[in-house]
């Protein structure tokens, strides 16, 4: 390990500075800065990067403690060694307790000076190496995770979580530049929003983040007092240190990552800044790709939704069907513990499940009465038509099972493939239940209580015939426990629950 370091020697006795220069610079090869004026030493600590400080205890109006404090405030990992001609046990304990590394008693042997400095530097470099390793591991994990996260919301959440964990931050925000207004808008935050909104530098509405966007340089914000902060001791004013880092993508700043760490003397170091910049660079490029991805996905989805809406607009009897089916399917899926990603696909899949009806002629789609066998054959083509329609859009692959298999039946009597039991993908099995429940509940002349009975009856009768028995049991459980609320979805107290029996027959045909 290269142990050459920048050492600052602070002593108003010139000969100590000369000795230190002689031993540490000339013999050991360190870069040594000597100061006989403690005020100048403090200025050096504020402006230069120092690895180790050797300081006298008493220097006129200053003491070594002032030097120690300056280090702790500006360069918290610097090793501080005291030199004193008047040693007492109390003094020694007191400086060590305040965070000094060691002390030397004047006059000291040159060998003691050399050995103490060497031990101090060894500890410092090991500590830095540890931090570097820890950062490297977490950066690696973070960039691997970012690579697998395509959606902006989850990505921003991931970045904030790592910042909170890595830098012990209490509050953090990501603000992105709005392309219309050119202003920063918070897109994601972590921590108490009330406290964040009281700190303009975290909300992007402040000259610090604005300067960061303009110059592309990170800013460390020292000595912040946060009023009314939500701290460990309840609402209180708290000291904090902050940082504001630009998010660069393709040469321009697309946003700002800002966070604060609470605590009296815990500023960010240049080492922190280095790790944060690496995270920010990875985050920015992941954010950019994910924004492009989301935009593209939105464009596709709105085209396809428009398509789905135009089909519903043609079909007099199933208006709002896709939306209600989506609702019911989601309640069931959540009830059986599906995750957010699966739910996302489920929503898209349910919205588009009947998209293949685009290929059904109006005369069949809107026929005011039961369909003939031939007409029903045409109607049965809609899952495959839909699935073919979506083939050209690779990112929608996860929704194919919803479109293709929602008319399959547990006993193998469904269409288009006649799959049986668990051969039918679970997406199809789940949607089949939601699809039928909506058909039962729409345009039926039953009153509220009997409607619910009818749903439970039909599900029970067709459990293990048309429907997956496990899913039916789960759904009935969820209805009984109140987790699935169909009443508000269908507004059961409406008295005109429709005398349109033609519609009723027509809908039961379509899900037959
Ligand atoms: Fe269908
Ligand atoms: Fe349907």
List keywords for this structure.
disordered C terminus; Rossmann fold; 21 helices; 3 domains; Beta-Lactamase; 12 strands; 512 residues; binds fe (ii) ion; elongated; Hypothetical protein af1432; alpha/beta; 5-stranded parallel beta sheet; single chain; 5-stranded antiparallel beta sheet
Helix and strand layout, with pairings?
Blueprint: E1 6-10, H1 14-27, E2 31-35, H2 38-47, E3 52-56, E4 58-59, E5 62-63, H3 64-74, E6 79-84, H4 89-97, E7 102-105, H5 110-147, H6 152-167, E8 171-177, E9 184-190, H7 193-197, H8 200-203, H9 207-215, E10 219-231, E11 234-249, E12 252-262, H10 270-314, H11 321-335, H12 340-351, H13 362-365, H14 373-379, H15 382-391, H16 400-405, H17 426-441, H18 448-461, H19 469-481, H20 486-490, H21 501-510
Parallel strand pairs: 1-2, 1-3, 3-6, 6-7
Antiparallel strand pairs: 4-5, 8-9, 8-12, 10-11, 11-12
Bound molecules: fe (ii) ion (FE2) (2 copies).
Residues 353-354, 382, 406-407 line the site of one fe (ii) ion.
Explain how this protein is built.
This protein is of the alpha/beta class and 512 residues long. It has helices spanning 14-27, 38-47, 64-74, 89-97, 110-147, 152-167, 193-197, 200-203, 207-215, 270-314, 321-335, 340-351, 362-365, 373-379, 382-391, 400-405, 426-441, 448-461, 469-481, 486-490, 501-510; strands at 6-10, 31-35, 52-56, 58-59, 62-63, 79-84, 102-105, 171-177, 184-190, 219-231, 234-249, 252-262. The strands form three sheets. A five-stranded parallel β-sheet has the order 2-1-3-6-7, with helices on both faces. It has a five-stranded antiparallel β-sheet with strand order 9-8-12-11-10, with helices on both faces. It has a two-stranded antiparallel ribbon with strand order 4-5. It is elongated, with a radius of gyration of 35 Å. The protein has 21 helices and twelve strands. Strand 1, helix 1 and strand 2 (31-35) form a beta-alpha-beta unit. Helix 11 runs antiparallel to helix 12 (340-351) and helix 17 (426-441) runs antiparallel to helix 18. It folds into three domains: 6-128, 3-Layer(aba) Sandwich (Rossmann fold), CATH 3.40.50; 148-286, GAF domain (Beta-Lactamase), CATH 3.30.450; 315-510, Hypothetical protein af1432 (Orthogonal Bundle). Helices cover 53% and strands 16% of the residues. Residues 494-512 have low confidence and may be disordered. The protein binds fe (ii) ion (2 copies). The site of one fe (ii) ion has 5 residues, from loops. One fe (ii) ion is lined by residues 321, 325, 353-354, 435.
């Amino acid at each position: 390990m290269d142990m050459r370091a920048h050492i600052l020697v602070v002593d108003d006795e010139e000969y100590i500075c000369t000795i230190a220069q002689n031993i540490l610079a000339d013999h050991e090869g360190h870069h040594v800065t000597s100061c006989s004026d403690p005020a100048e030493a403090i200025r050096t600590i504020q402006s230069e990067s120092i690895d180790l400080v050797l300081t006298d205890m008493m220097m006129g109006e200053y003491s070594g403690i002032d030097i120690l404090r300056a280090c702790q405030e500006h360069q918290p990992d610097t090793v501080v060694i005291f030199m004193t001609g008047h040693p007492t046990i109390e003094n020694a304990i007191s400086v060590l307790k305040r965070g000094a590394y060691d002390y030397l008693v004047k006059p000291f042997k040159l060998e003691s000076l050399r050995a103490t400095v060497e031990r101090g530097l060894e500890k410092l470099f090991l500590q830095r190496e540890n931090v570097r390793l820890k950062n490297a591991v977490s950066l690696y994990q973070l960039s691997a995770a970012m690579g697998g996260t395509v959606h902006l919301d989850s990505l921003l959440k991931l970045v904030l979580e790592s910042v909170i964990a890595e830098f012990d931050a209490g509050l953090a925000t990501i603000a992105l530049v709005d392309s219309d207004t050119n202003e920063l808008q918070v897109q994601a935050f972590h921590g108490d929003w009330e406290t964040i909104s009281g700190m303009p530098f975290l909300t992007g509405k402040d000259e610090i983040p604005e300067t960061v966007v303009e110059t592309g340089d990170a800013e460390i914000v020292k000595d912040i007092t946060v009023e009314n902060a939500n701290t460990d001791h309840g609402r209180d004013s708290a000291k904090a240190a902050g940082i504001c880092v630009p998010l660069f993508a393709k040469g321009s700043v697309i946003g700002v990552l800002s966070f604060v760490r609470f605590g009296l003397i815990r500023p960010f170091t240049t080492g922190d800044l280095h790790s944060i910049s690496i995270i920010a660079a990875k985050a920015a490029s992941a954010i950019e790709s994910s924004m492009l991805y989301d935009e593209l996905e939105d464009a596709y989805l709105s085209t396809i939704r428009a398509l789905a809406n135009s089909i519903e607009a043609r079909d007099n009897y199933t208006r709002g069907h896709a939306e209600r089916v989506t609702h019911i399917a989601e309640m069931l899926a959540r009830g059986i513990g599906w995750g957010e990603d699966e739910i996302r696909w489920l929503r898209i899949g349910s919205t588009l499940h009947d998209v293949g009806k685009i290929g059904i002629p109006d005369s069949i789609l809107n026929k005011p009465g039961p369909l003939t066998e031939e007409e029903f054959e045409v109607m049965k083509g809609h899952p495959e038509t839909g699935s073919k329609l979506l083939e050209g859009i690779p990112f929608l692959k996860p929704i194919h099972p919803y479109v293709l298999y929602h008319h399959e039946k547990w006993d193998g009597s469904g269409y288009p493939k006649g799959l049986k039991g668990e051969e039918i993908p679970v997406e199809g099995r789940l949607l089949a239940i939601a699809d039928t429940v909506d058909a039962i509940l729409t345009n039926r002349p039953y009153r509220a209580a009997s409607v619910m009975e009818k749903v439970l009856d039909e599900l029970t009768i067709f459990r293990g015939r048309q429907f997956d028995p496990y899913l039916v049991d789960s759904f009935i459980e969820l209805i009984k426990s109140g987790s699935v609320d169909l009443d508000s979805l269908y507004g059961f107290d409406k008295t005109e629950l429709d005398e349109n029996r033609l519609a009723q027959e027509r809908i039961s045909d379509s899900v037959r």
